[in-house]
Amino acid sequence: MTDRLDRLAAKRPRTTAGGEGTGDDRPLTARQLTALVVARATSCAGFFAVLPYLGLWLVDSRGLSGADAGLVVGAAILANRAGGVLLVPLIHRLGLKASVGAGYLGAALAFAVLGAGLRLPAYGWLAVAALAGLSLAMATTAMKAQVAAFPPDQRLRGFSYLNMAVNAGSAVGPVIGGALLEWHAGRLPLAAAALDLVALAAVPALPGTWRGSEPPRQATDGADDSAEKGRGRWLPQRPFVAFSLLVCGTWVAYAQVFDVLPAYLGDTISTRDLGLVFTLNAVLVVALQVPVSALSRRVLNGPRAGFGLLCTAANVVLAAAVVLFAFGRTGGLGLLLAAMVLFTLSELVWSPLYDAQVGERRGNLSTTAAYALAGVAWGAAESAGAWLGTLLAVRPAEPGALSLAAAPYWGAAALALLTGLAMSWSGRRTTDRRTPADRTSADRTPDTPPSGHERNTHDVDMPARP
């Protein structure tokens, strides 16, 4: 089977990375992986250096009211979460690598305007902040699509490095922003602009070419190829929709830790200790992401394992971590640190795994559109989970783990378990559906897809797994 799949990968038409393919099936070089990490880490550091302090900075340094500052911050977050969908046509036109560069350039310009000392009305600051969010959304969506176009055995590795870079950047960014806010508040956005320029400088070393086109798709049942391609760019199929919605359960659980935990713990733990808990997460991700991802790839390639088992295990560990966090008001710092270790171990598995699966389950969607749509769904799930969790968790008079304040954590644990079970069931169904085709594969040439099946250039070469 391995020999047949190797021949199949060798005979696939190569496409350029500006569109939807890598243009090269050779393994990623250390230079390319370094460029991925530098670009993603520095851009995240720039965004998170500003975002946590943006409202305070606008009120203290630019004289906005609290309500107006809240609208500006909300615009930046919304644009960063949902902007990828709006910019998919532009990303298709520019190509993936050029879109990454354009996104970082746009973010650098937007942050430079924020730090230029201008006096703008509230809607002016809102527009600039939204531009920064849109630009970073463009770069992030294009970079994820670019990683999805890596050779099949390199995708999970690429997303693992991206996850490591995101966590490193999001940990370092607030430290930089806090120091600048005390030292020279006016230079806070300029520091973000400088970090985005560093990310821009790393773009030429990314894999692929600057321009390219999306690979042509074969017509199905005599349908017009151009019309089918136009519809396929934006019409998600049922497997992709089901996968994206199921994953929302994991993101709701994630929100209870990263978005709700400070409000839930309230005055029961000091800010310093809470910072130590989150710092532990960042350190563990940077230290363990690569070896854990290597172990994940071995599990995916195992004869009796696969995506379903790996995803179920990650969500079970996530549920256990969330339950421990529910006891955080009375359990002390040691319990919180143990919970964060479990949470991080689960995140090291499911975060890159879900990103890799988007490219493989996209169906007729273009890769760029798939990551943009998935990002909106998961961002909405995290936002809804954060809103509901905060609404219930801010109850200082109810310290017990069985109180209403802890309900978001018990609910999140149940959602994580259900998500894992659903993914396990989905994995078994996919295995059963594809195995008969593998049994009859000897009747086909290695480069011939089954009858009625449209070749997806991003299928992972592991036939018994989704």
TrEMBL record:
<feature type="region of interest" description="Disordered">
    <location>
        <begin position="428"/>
        <end position="466"/>
    </location>
</feature>
<feature type="transmembrane region" description="Helical">
    <location>
        <begin position="333"/>
        <end position="350"/>
    </location>
</feature>
<dbReference type="GO" id="GO:0005886">
    <property type="term" value="C:plasma membrane"/>
</dbReference>
<feature type="transmembrane region" description="Helical">
    <location>
        <begin position="406"/>
        <end position="425"/>
    </location>
</feature>
<feature type="transmembrane region" description="Helical">
    <location>
        <begin position="307"/>
        <end position="327"/>
    </location>
</feature>
<protein>
    <recommendedName>
        <fullName>MFS transporter</fullName>
    </recommendedName>
</protein>
<keyword id="KW-1133">Transmembrane helix</keyword>
<feature type="transmembrane region" description="Helical">
    <location>
        <begin position="35"/>
        <end position="59"/>
    </location>
</feature>
<feature type="compositionally biased region" description="Basic and acidic residues">
    <location>
        <begin position="429"/>
        <end position="466"/>
    </location>
</feature>
<dbReference type="InterPro" id="IPR011701">
    <property type="entry name" value="MFS"/>
</dbReference>
<dbReference type="Pfam" id="PF07690">
    <property type="entry name" value="MFS_1"/>
</dbReference>
<dbReference type="InterPro" id="IPR036259">
    <property type="entry name" value="MFS_trans_sf"/>
</dbReference>
<feature type="transmembrane region" description="Helical">
    <location>
        <begin position="161"/>
        <end position="181"/>
    </location>
</feature>
<keyword id="KW-0813">Transport</keyword>
<feature type="region of interest" description="Disordered">
    <location>
        <begin position="211"/>
        <end position="231"/>
    </location>
</feature>
<feature type="transmembrane region" description="Helical">
    <location>
        <begin position="71"/>
        <end position="91"/>
    </location>
</feature>
<feature type="transmembrane region" description="Helical">
    <location>
        <begin position="122"/>
        <end position="140"/>
    </location>
</feature>
<feature type="region of interest" description="Disordered">
    <location>
        <begin position="1"/>
        <end position="26"/>
    </location>
</feature>
<keyword id="KW-1003">Cell membrane</keyword>
<feature type="transmembrane region" description="Helical">
    <location>
        <begin position="371"/>
        <end position="394"/>
    </location>
</feature>
<keyword id="KW-0472">Membrane</keyword>
<feature type="transmembrane region" description="Helical">
    <location>
        <begin position="239"/>
        <end position="257"/>
    </location>
</feature>
<dbReference type="InterPro" id="IPR050171">
    <property type="entry name" value="MFS_Transporters"/>
</dbReference>
<dbReference type="GO" id="GO:0022857">
    <property type="term" value="F:transmembrane transporter activity"/>
</dbReference>
<keyword id="KW-0812">Transmembrane</keyword>
<feature type="transmembrane region" description="Helical">
    <location>
        <begin position="277"/>
        <end position="295"/>
    </location>
</feature>
<feature type="transmembrane region" description="Helical">
    <location>
        <begin position="98"/>
        <end position="116"/>
    </location>
</feature>
<feature type="transmembrane region" description="Helical">
    <location>
        <begin position="187"/>
        <end position="207"/>
    </location>
</feature>
